[in-house]
Design goal:
single chain; 136 residues; mainly alpha; elongated
Length: 136
Amino acid sequence: MPPSRALSGALKPLSASPIRPRTASNSIQLQSSTSQSRAFSAHPVSSTDTGHSSSHSDQYDPPSGWLYNVPPGEKYKNEGWEALWVWGVWGSIGATVVAYAYKPDTSIQTWALEEARRRLEAEGILPDSSADGPEK
């Protein structure tokens, strides 16, 4: 049956009569019509129906009991993207550590200490540290 015919049957109203109070016979009739509409829906619920799936492979690998599905004694074969991922992650972590180690000190305490020393040297309270030259 084409899907359009299945859908047209599912979209028909249950009854054209006005709303009636619910009785025991009405609820049984309502339950049976609901179960029939579910049985003939356009998308059946089945694990074997893969025609409506957007992927082309099984979504679940059954458990084998082995880590990474590699039997004992066999060597794990890397996939093509794994080496690039490892180098990219560890390389970016290394670059971040180096950049953090050599970043300039921009704290307010360092700026205030340098500014205070500059002003005290300008007033003559502290000796000029650049006039002494390098200490031995």
